[in-house]
Structure formats: structure tokens, C-alpha cells
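FYI - complex with magnesium ion, inputs then prediction.
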Amino acid sequence: MPSEPREAFVWIWLPGAVDPVVAGRLDRDPASGIISFTYGQSYLEREDRISLYLPELPLVRGEIAAAAGNLAGCIADAAPDSWGQRVILNRHSSEAVDTGDLNPLVYLLESGSDRIGALDFQESPLEYVPRSKRHATLAELVESAEKVERGTPLSPELDLALLHGSSVGGARPKALVDDRGRRLIAKFSSTADTLSVVKAEFVAMELARRVEIEAAPVSLASADGKDVLLVERFDRLADGSRLAIVSALTILGLDEVAARYASYAALADQIRARFTEPASTLRELFARITFNVLCSNTDDHARNHAAFWDGEMLTLTPAYDICPQRRAGGVTNQLMAIGKDGFRESRVAGCVARASGAGSSSTLTRPRATGASEVRWSSSRAAGGRRSAIGSAGCPRRCRGSWRRGPTSPTACSRRSRRCRRARRSRG
Ligand SMILES: Nc1ncnc2c1ncn2[C@@H]1O[C@H](COP(=O)(O)OP(=O)(O)OP(=O)(O)O)[C@@H](O)[C@H]1O
Ligand SMILES: [Mg+2]
């Protein structure tokens, strides 16, 4: 692989498809570092084409420059974040010392192909060659992750095993593993941890599910005497198809530099305008905000919320990365502002005050047309049993409905809209 690639081809799993097709090309301008995207002619001519994400990559001919930052947000969401970059840097340790030393296209082209969402990046527009995975035990992956943190080179086998999960975002050490048909993200302790972050995240995620927040199912494992959090992936369906995902950062039209301007109030506006089932999604979002406050998850940045994208509409993904953070003093702040007024204090009363403010259309929980729908953190909810449907995703039949899912597999489209029924009939 050349160390200075100028282009990379974007492949996409279209809704319901089990094989990818080429969607277009990324070109990096070496002078400015800006990476533009151009849809392929053959893709634009497909009947089942979808935009990689709107409004940033509309289905038009010609080069599309990133609206914010150097790279379109939906592509950046599929790129390795600081952990994956460290794994890749580890294999380039003879030529680069800092993650910023490598061309961003290297991260796209070398990271594992089983990335979050429905995109992958390839050197060729003609042939799709997934970057192969190597099997490694959980204990071997834990040991390899520690080596990467220390900057110690890995054996070629372990390098490939860890590289497989390098495309998953986030800063904490992790890998992708399969366990009897379950597709899992394994999150490891970091050598920098001063408390059991893995256990804390397990407890918070489990508590969230018990109070009926739609959270990704988690379990706790042990490898080599160390805790490992296993998180079930919600972007893969049992039939082998993949669900496209964009982060709240992308939905808000922000890049990493502007991430501090992200707010839940702005996300609520997007939910009202562009999400399936906005009323219940607003209630779910409000539950997630207050749960973050209650369990001290102050690391609620805009890449810790995401939505499925079906080419037209967004559907909130199950919650993930709910991890209590150590508090220094009595008063602390959420990373994402809660209100339009910039309020970000970790106080439930402040959330409630912004939930359905009198006469305002920019509240956290009020649907667009139906007036106030105040949400209370009710004791019955906090005590609550589990709902049968624990996850949702955009219906792959693009009916604007959403799949309601059991713990491991999709069951049905919740909305059963006319369009979905039509699609069902035509597919027999
Ligand atoms: N269950 C899941 N299914 C599919 N994708 C997921 C799931 N959990 C997390 N992700 C994706 O993986 C990314 C990284 O996961 P996560 O946020 O848990 O890692 P992290 O290293 O703890 O992140 P941070 O840097 O915020 O601490 C997320 O931003 C999201 O895109
Ligand atoms: Mg995260």
C-alpha cells in the first residue's frame, strides 16, 4: 500500500443487501488536506441508490466538498477514531510517531472492513476485497490491546486480529469478536484506568435497560483475569445485511472541532424534523439525557448518540457507551449542552425545566404538531420491567417505519406502512 494514497473507493451495503456495491470515490487534495466525494456514474444510475447521507452528500454528479471539516461527517463516522488510529499507527511505527503523521486515507484503507454502519473503503472500484480477519482469543486480544497502548509491536497474526476492530470508533481499547453468531464489540480496560471502567459501563448499561431505555445488550466476561465488556452490535441483521449509521455530530452538521456546539435541544429539533416516530424518540432521548445525569455519564459527546439512516429518514439507534465518569466536585457538566440556552449542568431539574417549556417549540420533548408532552422520570418507569422490543432500526424496506427487534434478531417492521407492505408483496 502506498503511504500517500490520494483516493479511496466507498462501498456501501444498500438497505437489505448482503453484498456491497461501489458508491463513489474519495479524493484527497494533498495541499489543503480536504477530501471530496464523487458518486460513481453506475451508482447514480441504480434504481435502489440512496444518498450516503443528506443533506451533506446529495445524489448529484460531480465532486462534493465536505460542508464541515476536511471530510463528510458520514464518512468520518465510519473512520477509525483515536483507538483505531493507534492500532494502525502501531504497524507504521517505523515511519510515523503520531497519529497525525499518517494520511487520513491510510486509516480508511487499512482499518478493518467490518466497520460500524454500511460503508467500507477499498483501493479498487471494481473488486471488493474485505480485509481479512484472524481469529484470536479474548485473552490474546486483551494482551495485544495493552501492547498497542505501550507502543510495543505485535506479531503479524495478532496485528491482523486487532486490526479487524480498528475501524470501530471511540478512544477506548476494543476489538470485534463473534461468539456463536453474536456480533460483539469487546471493550477492554485501559492501562490508564484508575477504576474499573469496564464494570462501571456494564452496570450503567444494564441499569439503563432495566429502566426501559433502549440500550445495546451487554455482558461481562473475563480474560486473563481482566474484565471485558461485550456489547451486542445493532448495525448487523441476521440475514447478513448492514444498517447505515450516522452520529449525532453528523446529524447536527458539525465536525470534531465544532463538537462543543452540539446540544440536545438541536438534536431534538432534528428528531422533530427528520426522524421516524419523533414523539417516542423525543421521550427516549429525554430518558437518556436524565439517565446520563443520574449515573454521572458526563462523556455524552455527540458521537455517543447515533441514528440509522435509510436514505430518507433517521431512526435513533439503541443507546451505547453509557459509562459513569469520576466526578471531581459537587457540580459538573454534561459534554453536550442540554438546552438552547447552553445549559449543560448535570442536574435533572435543569433537564425537566427544558423538557417542555411554556410556549416554546424548541423544547426537548415536545413533538412538532401535537403540543406538549411532558416527560417525567416516573418511579414506575425507574422500577420498570423490560419492553419486549429492545431495539429499533430503519426498516430495510425503506418504508419509513422501523424494525422492532428482539435481543438478537429483527422481527418485524413496526409501522407496516403501505409502502412497506408493497415492498413485501413485490419481494414475495
Ligand atoms: N452496540 C453497538 N452496535 C453498533 N455500533 C456501536 C455499538 N456500540 C458502539 N458502537 C459504535 O462504536 C463506536 C465506539 O463505541 P464506544 O462509544 O462504546 O467506544 P468508546 O471508546 O468508549 O468511545 P469514547 O471515545 O466515546 O469513550 C461508537 O461511536 C458507535 O459508532
Ligand atoms: Mg463513545
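The CA atoms of residues 189 and 214 lie 25 Å apart. The radius of gyration is 21 Å.
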